[in-house]
Amino acid sequence: YLRHASGWLDFEDITGQSGTWTSPANEAPVYKWTNPDYPAAYYLIQARARTGFSAGIPDEGLTIWRIDENGDNQNCPQEYGSHFLVDLVHANDEPTVMEGATYHAGGVDAFGADTSPSSDWWGINPSGLELHSVSAPGATMTFSIGDVDTDADEDAGADTDTAADSGADAGDGATGDGCGCRAAGRAQGGSLLGAI
Predict the structure, then answer these.
(1) Which of 11, 114, 21, 22 is nearest to 65 (CA)?
(2) Nearest CA to 131 among 12, 65, 24, 45?
(3) DSSP code of 121?
(4) Where are the alpha helices (DSSP H) in the chain?
(5) What is the percent of the chain where pLDDT is above 70?
(6) Which residues lie closer than 8 Å to 192 by C-beta, 6 or more apart?
(7) Strands of the 140-145 sheet, one edge to the other
(8) Per residue in 69-111, pLDDT tens?
């Protein structure tokens, strides 16, 4: 998000699309899934790997960030109408634990309406984002959005190469114990933020 705000990076908006995408680790494209009812809110999706300038990040895999351009990272606790500007969605649903925070095969490889954390917009409205089949961490990762039956997508001719919160508020990864726990998670998650 910060690289985009500085004019160094463009997002590729994939809102409402289904298919399989490729994400080179630590590089563009960064994929965006926008809330059509509140365009200042969206998810950013990018692969991260422990290489180069990112060698010291605490976890590697697919990162999913919840953004609210009208948010403030000083807001606590998170509630409807009061969101963080940038918030890492922790695959492990533990905002203070960085190991297992990313999505990947062999760990948590799906993010949707029925996962925990949920892809709903701050636990209130469905986002429609059903991300699944995340590959293993590596120099390039893939993920799919849409119908979980990937064989049916392939049979229908879908492009499989480049198509293109529990706690205080459900779906945001909060533990419900107030600001301290989430603030610790944000501080540790900051090193994952560098590539966005």
Answers:
(1) 11
(2) 45
(3) B
(4) 2-5, 150-155, 179-193
(5) 66
(6) 48, 57, 58, 59, 63, 88, 98, 101, 102
(7) 19-24, 140-145, 131-132
(8) 888 777 665 555 567 778 899 999 998 899 999 999 999 999 9
**24 cis-preceded (ω within 30 degrees of 0):** no
Identify the residue with better confidence: 123 or 170: 123
For 133-171, where are the E strands, in sequence order?
140-145
Q: Which two tokens stand for residue 15?
A: 């809102």
Which tokens hold the place of 162? 């480049």
Q: In this predicted structure, what is the pLDDT of residue 95?
A: 85
Nearest-CA neighbor of 43 among 26, 53, 28, 31?
Answer: 31
Of 48-52, 64-68, 77-81, 110-114, the one with minimum mean pLDDT is 77-81
Is the per-residue pLDDT at 21 higher than 90?
A: yes
* Cis peptide upstream of residue 117 (ω within 30 degrees of 0): yes
Kindly report the pTM of this predicted structure: 0.74
Task: Please state, as a whole number, how many other Cβ atoms lie within 10 Å of the Cβ of residue 21.
Answer: 23
Instruction: State how far the Cα of 75 lies from the Cα of 122, in Å rounded to an integer.
Output: 14
C-alpha–C-alpha distance, residues 112 and 115, integer Å = 5
Residue 69, CB half-sphere, CA atoms under 13 Å: how many? 12
Tell me what the mean pLDDT of segment 173-196 comes to. Answer: 36
User: What totals of helices (H) and strands (E) does the chain contain, helices first?
Assistant: 3, 8
Mapping DSSP to helix (H, G, I), strand (E, B) and coil, where does residue 17 land?
A: coil
